[in-house]
Amino acid sequence: MDMQTDQAFVLHVRPYKETSALLDLFTREQGRIRAVLRGYRSKKGSAARPFNCLEVELRGQGELKSIARLEPAGGFLLLQGERLMCALYLNELSMRLLPLADPQPQVHEHYHLTLQALAAGHAVEPLLRSYEWRLLEQLGYGFSLEQDSQGRPLEPQGWYLLQPESGFLPVAAIQPGAFLGADLQALAAVQWQQPGVVRTAKRLMRQALAPHLGNRPLMSRELFLRHKESSA
């Protein structure tokens, strides 16, 4: 029987039959896949926790795999409060955007590093925005932060509207949803310390992700807002 060993992260878990679970895994070699873990409700399933790097052995050639072995491939990450909410957002975003069985080793590596940086206490906003950007870029949805849709360099005092399919469209004056060229240039230069850049990045990524997420809201965003309200 064909067996494949891979590095994986659990993105989502659902009960399956009496004692099993259906896992959405983000694997290094195969991308996002679905697999059945039998005996999940026993001790066997204790390692199948999100946010921890796992080594898995997978059986099967079809879309739904079977997990023959699953064990930790490193130490467990401690994520709490805001950082746990951010990790849940990474998982939901990956679930919604990554196609099945499409290897994305660079995104997988960036996902792993982002989780480690969250656990290590690094600033949250740059981590999330960088992962969103890498995800869009690797899936073919990226755009230039240095040129407009006609290939001309962005002007610091110019105003631009994002057209996700083609890039930045110059507009004559400020209008709802528009971006100042200087803010986009600072973002392109990864100048997170500049005033307004974090806010610009968040607004830009919201606009860029919207066409790919559709109308269904992200549950992790709602959880994050509730967490902030309860912590206030």
Automatic annotation (TrEMBL):
One of its GO terms (biological process) is DNA recombination. The keyword Glycoprotein does not apply. Keywords: DNA damage, DNA recombination, DNA repair. Residues 1-75 form the DNA replication/recombination mediator RecO N-terminal domain. GO terms for cellular component: bacterial nucleoid. InterPro entries: ARFGAP/RecO, DNA_rep/recomb_RecO_N, NA-bd_OB-fold, RecO, RecO_C. Belongs to the RecO family. Involved in DNA repair and RecF pathway recombination. HAMAP family: RecO (MF_00201). This is DNA repair protein RecO. It comes from Thiopseudomonas denitrificans. The lineage of its organism: Bacteria, Pseudomonadati, Pseudomonadota, Gammaproteobacteria, Pseudomonadales. The gene is recO.
